[in-house]
């Protein structure tokens, strides 16, 4: 019993392109409006309406393709993908089948400290469908509402090769893909708003086997955590099934976030089920090499380049550099701080520990954070010149995060200034020594721990405001004098 299996994962990621208007009509591409207010006869699928391609959607697709090291097609075209579903008013989706805009790219993730290349099979343009709002879980809903605001929003579907071998690799790939798309400026990639959506194809095969096992496709993965958990669950389910002598059925599953299980939605369609054919309303697109090269020249710094720069120019360890270069906003904050502070590692430590802790706690993005780089540097300076201790600084930082106040104001209001006056501290030290003759004797008899107790007493009477370094120094000096 207990065969060794290899997990094989490929991801299909849909990103909404950050255009001003929809892909085939002039309706605004905007999240969060009242349902069915950004709709016209074209995106509502009225008969006889003609689509007009949005050039900006093509441009953003090319940029994404270049950022993902893809070959950009010289000619691509649109096809109709036919299926019936209440969120698709035309009963077909305009997509790209035979001739996608981007092919054969890759991106790199880190696996056990070494780079691993994950292939990008293709990336194609298509229109988004409307949004169905179910009352409760999709498998139990009593009725469903349709919002067509999203219908016709430009999408790029990015299909990876089945190159990932664990849930962790899949998560790392998705994080890196998100970073690349954010840096390239093609999408805001907000999973919680649906502008980045991910489906996972998962199969297993006996270790050493070359042929791929039967795969299942998991939908409804709304966060990095659901992606990881759903894959882990699905891999175990498939293993148990095979171990029990069963077979895997090719099907589409949904991830039940509440119960943390995958459930069957429908048997998986094959491409031929969709009856793809060229859309007769749209001409093929010829993409000039001049256009592609101009876009390539103007691509901004990408995550891998940013990581290199942080290691070379700021001396950051690879781990820190990788985390800071996962989002352009995060990197911009770091760059603004590091430009005015001599120790980049101190900046990255504060960002990765305290700032991340608070961002996660409040489920916030750094762009929503109230702390500006000026105030942050000011706070670091106050630690360096002894005005506040590192411990106090954490409280100051928390207050800055919550209110956006400057550290000056917070330190003053809370009376947080550290006592670094040697004379004042010396008096306190003498008093504490007088009150604790036994502890002093213990220390002189070689009990090192006694010193800690005395420092603690001084911190207690000063309510934590004494400069601990100075207290230590003065205590030792006084004890040796006596
Ligand atoms: Zn429209």
Describe this entry's structure for a reader.
This protein is an alpha+beta fold and 482 residues long. It has 3 domains: 5-294, no CATH class; 301-413, no CATH class; 422-481, Arc Repressor Mutant, subunit A. The chain has helices at residues 55-67, 167-184, 224-243, 289-297, 303-314, 318-324, 328-338, 344-361, 373-384, 390-403, 407-413, 422-435, 437-444, 449-461, 468-481, and strands at 5-16, 71-72, 75-76, 79-82, 92-95, 102-111, 114-127, 131-134, 144-147, 154-160, 196-206, 216-221, 251-256, 261-267, 277-278, 285-286. A hairpin with a 4-residue loop joins strand 13 and strand 14 (261-267). Helix 2 packs antiparallel against helix 3 (224-243) and helix 12 (422-435) packs across helix 15 (468-481). The model has no long low-confidence stretch (mean pLDDT 91). Zinc ion binds next to loops.
Descriptors for this entry?
3 domains, 482 residues, 3-stranded antiparallel β-sheet, binds zinc ion, 9-stranded mixed β-sheet, 15 helices, Arc Repressor Mutant, subunit A, elongated, alpha+beta, single chain
- N-end to C-end Cα span: 75 Å
Strands, count = 16
Give the cofactors and ligands: zinc ion
**Overall form:** elongated
Number of helices: 15
Number of domains in the coordinates?
3
- Tell me the Rg in angstroms: 29 Å
Task: Please render the helix and strand layout as text.
Elements: E1 5-16, H1 55-67, E2 71-72, E3 75-76, E4 79-82, E5 92-95, E6 102-111, E7 114-127, E8 131-134, E9 144-147, E10 154-160, H2 167-184, E11 196-206, E12 216-221, H3 224-243, E13 251-256, E14 261-267, E15 277-278, E16 285-286, H4 289-297, H5 303-314, H6 318-324, H7 328-338, H8 344-361, H9 373-384, H10 390-403, H11 407-413, H12 422-435, H13 437-444, H14 449-461, H15 468-481
Parallel strand pairs: 12-13
Antiparallel strand pairs: 1-10, 1-11, 2-6, 3-16, 4-5, 4-15, 6-7, 7-10, 8-9, 11-12, 13-14
Helix pairs in contact: 2-3, 5-6, 6-8, 7-9, 9-10, 12-15, 13-14, 14-15
Bound molecules: zinc ion (ZN).
């Amino acid at each position: 019993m207990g065969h060794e299996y290899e997990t094989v994962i490929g991801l299909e990621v849909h990103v909404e392109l950050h255009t001003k208007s929809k892909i085939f009509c002039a309706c605004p591409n905007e999240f969060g409006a009242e349902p069915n207010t950004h709709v016209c006869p074209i995106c509502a699928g009225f008969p006889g309406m003609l689509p007009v391609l949005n050039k900006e959607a093509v441009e953003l697709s090319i940029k994404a393709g270049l950022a993902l090291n893809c070959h950009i097609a010289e000619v691509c075209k649109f096809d109709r993908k036919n299926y019936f579903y209440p969120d698709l008013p035309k009963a077909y989706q305009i997509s790209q089948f035979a001739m996608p805009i981007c092919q054969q790219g890759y991106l790199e993730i880190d696996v056990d400290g070494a780079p691993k290349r994950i292939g990008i099979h293709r990336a194609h343009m298509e229109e988004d469908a409307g949004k169905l709002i179910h009352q409760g879980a999709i498998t139990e809903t009593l009725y469903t509402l349709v919002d067509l605001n999203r219908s016709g929003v430009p999408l790029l579907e990015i299909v990876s090769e089945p190159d990932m071998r664990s849930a962790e690799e899949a998560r790392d790939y998705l994080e890196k893909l998100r970073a690349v798309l954010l840096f390239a400026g093609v999408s805001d990639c907000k999973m919680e708003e649906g502008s980045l959506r991910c489906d996972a194809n998962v199969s297993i095969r006996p270790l050493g086997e070359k042929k791929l096992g039967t795969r299942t496709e998991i939908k409804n993965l709304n966060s990095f955590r659901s992606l990881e958990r759903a894959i882990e669950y699905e891999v175990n389910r498939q293993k148990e099934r095979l171990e029990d002598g069963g077979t895997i059925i090719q099907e589409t599953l949904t991830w039940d976030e509440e119960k943390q299980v995958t459930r069957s939605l429908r048997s998986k369609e094959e491409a031929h089920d969709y009856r793809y054919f060229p859309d007769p309303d749209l001409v093929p697109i010829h993409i000039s090499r001049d256009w592609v090269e101009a876009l390539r020249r103007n691509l901004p710094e990408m995550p891998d380049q940013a990581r290199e720069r942080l290691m070379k120019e700021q001396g950051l360890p690879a781990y820190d550099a990788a985390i800071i270069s996962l989002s352009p906003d995060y990197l911009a904050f770091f760059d603004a701080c590091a430009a005015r502070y001599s120790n980049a590692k101190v900046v990255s430590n504060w960002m990765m520990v305290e700032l991340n802790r608070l961002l996660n706690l409040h489920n916030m993005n750094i762009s929503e954070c109230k702390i500006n780089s000026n105030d942050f540097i000011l706070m670091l300076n106050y630690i360096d010149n002894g005005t506040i201790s590192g411990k106090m600084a954490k409280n100051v930082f928390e207050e800055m995060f919550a209110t956006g106040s400057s550290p000056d104001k917070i330190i003053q209001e809370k009376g947080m200034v550290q006592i670094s006056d040697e004379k004042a501290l010396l008096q306190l030290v003498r008093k504490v020594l007088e009150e604790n003759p036994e502890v002093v004797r213990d220390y002189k008899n070689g009990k090192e721990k006694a010193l800690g107790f005395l420092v603690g007493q001084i911190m207690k009477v000063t309510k934590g405001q004494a400069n601990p370094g100075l207290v230590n120094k003065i205590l030792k000096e006084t004890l040796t004098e006596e």
